[in-house]
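Appendix B. Raw example, untouched.
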Amino acid sequence: MAYDFDLFVIGGGSGGVRCARIAATHGARVAVAESRHWGGTCVNLGCVPKKMMVQASEYGAQAVDSHGFGWNTEPGTHDWPQLIAAKDREIGRLNGTYAKLLEGAGVTRFEAHARFEDAHALLLQPGPLDARFEPRRVTAERIVIAVGGHPVVQPHIEGYELGITSDQVFHLPERPRHITIVGGGYIGVEFSGIFEGLGSEVQLVYRQLLPLRGFDEDLRTGLHDALLARGIGLHPGTEMHRIQRRADGFLCTLSDGQAWRTDLVFFAVGRTPNIRGLGLDRTGVATAEHGRIVVDADSETAEPGIFAIGDVTNRQNLTPVAIAEGHILADRLYGGRPRDWSFDTVPKAVFFSPPLASVGLNEAEAAERGAADIYLTRFTPMRHTLSGRDRKTLMKLVVDQASQRVVGVHMLGDDAPEIMQGLAIAVTAGLSKADFDRTVGLHPTSAEEFVTLRTRTRVAGPA
């Protein structure tokens, strides 16, 4: 049969837009439907506005730190509405950029919600982006699901509906003077730093004994110390039990009986695939735990001709991964030249102050595969020998003992994400500890420590 489009992408986030653009440049007839905002979570309610807010939160501390260098600057007062307005202007510009990229590639855009009628047909209906959209039915030979995810709450908590998630935190009319954040992952840690840096009193509640489950244990311990140094109240190994509304805010009660008053409760306890309302029951697409769409190595679902990329598959929920998956898929389907990305060495960062970043295996993962040489250093960076701020840098190399390949690099400290991007190339290329050792350091920098680590700290795993 004749289809309206060769490829239809549901979702105008980073992965969906990349897939659509590349497929169109290969000559395919492509359309994209987006019902909420072009650019997806990352641009609108995630990494981009969050990093702007992290940067905003750092200026007050920098003014104080300057005293150690002879400046007499003083921190001013922060204007929250001004920050939000500036952030919104930049997000609006980026929304327009995504739309222009699609139009420039010849992709048809629909500002509508797409729902499956069958494996090749979609019903497009009005959504928040365009409430006046005229419903219509379209068909496509292939369909890509790139709808991302949405934040979850904890409905077992009494009064959970009184809290907010990251979907609301970027649009608060004013900064809370006291905020309670539930969750010790990326989002909880980053926003604890944002609000503390802007002047709020922060309490951070999480079930693990250390924040950032899945990261290297030394990094997690270093972050714990950094959170305490920032004056953030930590409540590890506990859960929120009850939230009660009061005339002056909310009363939070933890599972261990601790209780306090707060202005705002912010749930940062994870995200789940955004599949509601897609009509997947009209197709053969299979889902698994938490609603993730099951795909094979080629991103194809159980329904031939329907694919899924990005957070909706709950593989590696990072924007660059979704972009890579979309690019690979478009090249494979329409470009005739498969593209290769290294998904085993995807770098990751947490934009706290100080930030942390990693690539490759952590110590525990490496030890499961065999003996690993661990090189570790902690020091006060040059800036803070004068500023007097209690801030440490931690650097760590994980080296496979048998091959002497560097299989993991971890850092907590200023500029960690910028440094880690370059080191991710080295780990992806399979460079050895000897390659690091014969590289001349750039002095004076913190980064040079990675090529001057000569003394092994310990051996992990079987000797």
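End of appendix B.
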